[in-house]
Specification:
- There is one protein chain.
- The protein contains 8 helices and 15 strands.
- By secondary structure, the protein is α/β, with parallel strands linked by helices.
- The strands form 3 sheets. Strands 3-5-8-9-10-11-14-15 form an 8-stranded parallel barrel, surrounded by 6 helices. It has a 4-stranded antiparallel beta sheet with strand order 6-7-13-12, with no helix packed on it.
- The longest helix has 14 residues.
- The protein is globular and about 45 Å long.
- The two termini are about 15 Å apart.
């Protein structure tokens, strides 16, 4: 068993160190062919907000060498509709469900944290820090969520600022750190519309691995979760060697779902 919240009274025990990252399987209702819950120690939902959010207009996807940009604008139906549609299934899924809270609406985090603990089967929360977050922002937003809920808090850091923000997140109440949301980039969609968003796919892996190692060197004594561009068993091992306790995969499930079996076998 893997413990991702060793200092939280609830804890977050995973049977495997492989996690379906944010939105990889939707809200637990979008499993690619041949991919089943038993392949993972937990799943992470798409990031949600209190009210419905329309997100960015189409197109939202731009391909780049080795990966893509996906700029959804945190499109989601809002807390109430997500819970009404999916909480019963979360209770039956058989693996912990980690609910992600959107970087675009940290002012919602305290309210959402309290309700998710009181009303749902959420096992933990994953707080997505915005790229523009400063230390004072991170301390305030994470602290508000910590005061509102006893659920384990995983804080997902933007990789360019992971080292700068990590210690503040721990002090504010994080139970684990997720490394993390890749650097922002700009590219052209298929119709030549300019798209701005975080890098995804294999191109994100070396950026994540550098940030992971740098945060591990801070010796903050909290679990670290690697999230970004992992596609091969040897990359999983490199994450563990760099200090990760667990690894998230996301875009791999969309591009090569069968590869998840190889990752699990490599564990």
């Amino acid at each position: 068993m893997i413990e991702l919240a060793p200092y939280n009274k609830r804890g977050l025990r995973l049977s495997l160190p492989l996690i379906a990252g944010s939105g990889a399987v939707g809200y637990g209702d979008a499993w690619p062919p041949g991919v089943t819950p038993d392949l993972f120690g937990a799943i992470v939902t798409p990031p949600i907000t209190w009210r419905p959010r329309r997100g960015n207009p189409a197109p939202r996807l731009a391909e780049v060498p080795g990966g893509f940009l996906l700029a959804t604008g945190d499109h989601n139906p809002g807390y109430r509709r997500v819970v009404e549609a999916h909480d019963v299934a979360w209770r039956r899924l058989g693996v912990p469900v980690i609910v992600a809270l959107a970087a675009s609406a940290p002012e919602d985090w305290a309210r959402l944290a309290a309700l998710l603990e009181e009303e749902t089967a959420a096992a933990a929360l994953e707080l997505h820090l915005p790229h523009v977050a400063h230390r004072s922002d991170a301390a305030a937003w994470i602290g508000a969520a910590r005061r509102a809920s006893t659920l384990p808090l995983l804080v997902k850091l933007p990789t360019p600022r992971a080292v700068a923000l990590a210690a503040t997140c721990v002090s504010a109440g994080a139970d684990a750190l997720v490394i993390g949301t890749a650097a922002l980039a700009r590219a052209q969609a298929a119709d030549n519309t300019p798209i701005s968003g975080p890098l995804a796919g294999s191109v994100a892996f070396p950026l994540m691995l550098y940030a992971l190692g740098a945060v591990a060197e801070l010796a903050l004594e909290l679990p670290l979760v690697a999230a970004g561009g992992v596609t091969r068993p040897e990359e999983v091992q490199r994450c563990f060697d760099a200090g990760a306790t667990a690894v998230q995969v996301r875009s791999l499930l969309w591009t090569d779902p069968g590869a998840v079996h190889r990752l699990k076998a490599g564990l």
